[in-house]
Amino acid sequence: MAAKTTTHRTTTAKPRTPAKAAKQSASAGAEDRAQRRVERQSLQRAARRPRADAADRGDAGGRLFVLALARGLEVLGAFRAGDRALGNQELAERTGLPKPTISRMTHTLIQLGYLTYEARSATYQLGARALALSYAALANLDVRKAALPIMTKLAEDSQLHVGLGTRERLMMLNIESCESDALIGLRLPPGSRVPLATTSLGKAYLATIGEDERSALLAELRDHHGNDWPKIEKSITKSMREMARGGFCLSTGEWRKDINAVGAAIVPPNGGPVYALSFGGPAYLVSQQQLIEQHGPALAHAARAISAALGG
Questions:
Q1: Tell me: the pLDDT tens digits for 61-91?
Q2: Which residues pair with 152 in a beta bridge?
Q3: pTM score, two decimals?
Q4: Domain locations in the chain?
Q5: Does domain 141-310 have CATH number 1.10.510.10?
């Protein structure tokens, strides 16, 4: 019997013609550009803040939101009281923006006078136009005008620090401070920031704002504080009861172990943002009993007087 012979055929791919290769390359390039466009739009949507008329619907976008402007303001907002100058690395860490973006933002802000540049140290400082804005904001702040004489008297009578603040994200920003003549005491100048969740200033604010705003802030604080949150949440709940009962709340060693303080809220009768007052000093000079019996009632009375003055 004759053996069968099997023939194997080898199939060789035909080379692409130049026209076909160019068409495929153009198609791939278009797909890449489309993907990059989708990713860029996604990042922009994630960075947007809610519009006022969309907040109740949970809409996280906003067609009027200008991302470049927001990034420039983030750079300006990175500067804190006590900062002499900041470099690109520090600005990137504080804002979460990439260094190339920081470079573009700082260049623009320098040209507009909001930042100045020190070539020897390669660092930036707030410029004259930024300072003019801050001074104008303070000068036109009605609550500061109403509070200052009352705060000054409290500080002189008690020899303790008295501060006035408002919320800035998850911090409280001091917008006015009155310090005693005592050699040892708490020093928190205007422009300094303290935590929202663990200070008397912040807890008085949290206890007074509306339920919706408070719920949103508590959710952010929970994520921010992680494993420490159960203890902090318990303290905030206690402070809310204290505020309802006596108009003031305590912070004894929560922010700093050596600092005791009491807080109260200022609510403008005609509407507007809630502010808070704090009153405190070193723990060995200010006992919890003094806060409850003396300083707390005095601060609550001062907060009501300031609120009434704003109504007038």
A1: 478 899 999 999 999 999 988 788 999 999 9
A2: none
A3: 0.73
A4: 67-130, 141-310
A5: no
